[in-house]
Amino acid sequence: MSLYLSVGYNGNIEDLKRILDSSDRVKSVYTGGVSDIIRGGRPQYVDSLKVLEDQLKLAKRRGVLFELALNAPCGFRDFSNKRWWQMLKGYVKELEDMGIDGVIVSHPFLMDLIKSYTQLKITASTICEIMSTRSALFYEELGADVIIPSMNLNMNITELKLMKTSLKTAHIRLIVNEHCLGDCPWRRFHHAHYSHSDVEIDYHVHCKRTYLNNPYLLLTNNVIRPEDLCFYEDITNDFKIVGRLVPVNDLINRIKAYEAQYFDGNYVELFDTGLSSIFNIPNRALDGLIEKKIHCNKVCKECGFCKGLYDSIVKITRR
């Protein structure tokens, strides 16, 4: 498979250089925009667009697309606030004028504005929680050029294939290493929280505690292992590596693993730096797990497969 990797980074030009040097499979990068205009799915922003000018030039020289994450699900003013919407129109036109290639968006109103006044490439964020072909088609009609389905659809190969064949012009990009719980009950509220706050701990403490108390859930999340990208060949070759809040050394290790489509290390290192210091799950011991997961009904207490697998292979190391 000829991979297309889309990689999030922290807005630091030195880290961007290292990311671009790490693999020629990195075909697009994305980072946060200006926080007091449109917020995003991670509390990572820049103080002004001027900060991004040299980073944008660097990406352009490397032939890599440069995108901004403007994917807050809320925080938008009423349409009666014409001054605010005029300001927003000016902002997205400024992004286009400075050479930004595309934007990652969740709110349909923002998609409509961007489509109406710019030629920016629009990516429908995973925050849209696109779980069906019908939903994907709605977002395509709204102007999306790229569809990032909900991470909870990653193991539904049948629906993803239907989505791929039904889309007229848009294509699918899949997130491979989101650390969230499968069907996380806090996720949508966490993203809404980020639209108004930079504080992470309130929500992270709940999912981390759930993993700590039920570590087999590390196997039931929606991470696509590097070895398992081949299961998606009929769907897409475009994969997103989450990385805006990830230490750059860990991010580069993940890029290299997905480029190689092989990782002989701790599976948890692919998606959660903190938890990888507590749990050591040999990635190669999970070969074949995806074939179980793509046919799973997700009623873990009745199945018990992942818990049994976890109990049989895991070594918990506390450093």
What does this structure look like?
The protein has 319 residues and is of the alpha/beta class. It has one domain: Aldolase class I (TIM Barrel, Alpha-Beta Barrel), CATH 3.20.20. The chain is built from 13 helices and 11 strands. The chain has helices at residues 13-22, 53-61, 82-98, 108-117, 133-142, 157-166, 187-194, 201-213, 248-260, 273-276, 289-293, 300-303, 305-313; strands at 4-8, 26-32, 65-70, 102-105, 121-124, 146-147, 171-172, 174-175, 238-241, 279-280, 315-316. The strands form 2 sheets. It has a 9-stranded parallel beta sheet with strand order 7-6-5-4-3-2-1-9-8. Strands 10-11 form a two-stranded antiparallel ribbon. Strand 2, helix 2 (53-61) and strand 3 (65-70) form a beta-alpha-beta unit. Helix 5 (133-142) packs parallel to helix 6 (157-166). The longest helix has 17 residues, at 82-98. It is globular, with a radius of gyration of 19 Å. The model has no long low-confidence stretch (mean pLDDT 94).
